[in-house]
Amino acid sequence: MSKPVLVVGAGPVGLTMAAELARYGAPVRVVDRLPARNTRSRALAIWPRTLELLDAAGCAGAFVATGLHAQAVSIHAGRRTLARIPFGTIASTFNYLLMIPQSETERLLEDHLGTSGGAVERGTELTDFVDGPDGVSCTLTHAGGGKERVEAAWLIGCDGAHSFVRRRLGQVFAGDTLPMGFVIADAHVAGLPVPPDEPAIFWHPDGAVMFFPISRDHHRIIADLGPVPLHMPDLGEMQRIVDRRGPGGITLSDPAWLSDFGVNERIVRHYRTGHVFLAGDAAHVHSPAGGQGMNTGMQDAFNLAWKLALVMRGEAAPSLPDSYGIERSGVARRILSDSGHMTRIVLLENHLAQRARNLVVQQGFRIPAIRRAVAGRLSGIRIGYPDSPLNAGSARGLHGPAPGQRLVLRQGRAAGGPPRLVLAARDSAEARAIIAHHPSLLAATACPPPDENGIWLVRPDGYVAAVARNGNGSVITAALDRMTSQGS
Question: Rounded to two decimals, what is the model's pTM?
């Protein structure tokens, strides 16, 4: 395991990838062409499923202590509240939306990487690579112009929407640029008639204006431009938009950032090409509606890191990482579709359609089941891998998750060391025999199962790989065999 994994890009995705690999004991280098860490707020939302994964990694506490805990999101038309979607119904320990600037997310992830001995190599750019039979030969160019040849076991492009790695692979970034533009401001907000930690969306016949808390008195304000071309706004323009589309009485001041942006919906066909992987915005981009982008990329990292670490240790078949693209592309396509639909609903232009939308939202969200369903979908806890090639068995007749579904374990995980799958089963000769059959893949002890009548095999990223009834442990053993060289 002497060759490192080379991670390109030290944003939230690259830092998560590097930190997970380092936590699992895999040699890793993470490089970024910029000389210093990002200081902009950029992405703000961390949803419960991502917090659960950060918790399993041992660093959620720092995030929870730093960010704002949004208990709901509200939708308004002027002074009239159409809907309020509470997050307290989300079936997670983290039943809220964590609002935290991306600059803080990156700082905390870099601190976490440091606990495993890792560090970001800044001012260092990947300028070429050649994939070979035993790894990737990479050329790095340092800030002073010096070049370095690195022989990497794997190369992971976490280098954003304009990814050099993706372009060098010749991957087509298939999709569309939506015919709409937005202006954005991070500013002090006074007079907003919602709780200070609550995201709020205001609909108006001219368009929408949205407020997302950054701190107790600073917000991200986003508004669509309608037919107006993209341009850099000033504070006066943002104030005029808020005055027209908001509830009235809101004052903006002290802007920290003003910008504009367009929306792309794109995804690559292949997440893996030989020893090269793409993750985060390098693999998929979509509308910011729903705040899913950074979360999706970080979850890409949690999915891939344990698989690569096991392969590098010689404990899993080289084909194991093939499941990464199968699993994560399905998630990205669903989120791309969901965020696109949300964007189009928010930005309806026909006034009759707007009135119908407002009525449907007002009436529909009075139904608790609809509020719960929307909160659950936004939270990420319903993300699963029903078509994963790693899945085996069935939960039919058992009270617990099916293969490919999430299962949060309260014990049986270690904060560091090699990745280990966990058996969720009652203590029995059968469970002990399964663990003895694969001691290098499984945690040494089982943890309590969701149902005493079943056995669950849980992956390091908190998803079920296999389920069997007691007495059918061969299903679990066969699933483990397929992951290892024994099954390749």
Answer: 0.96
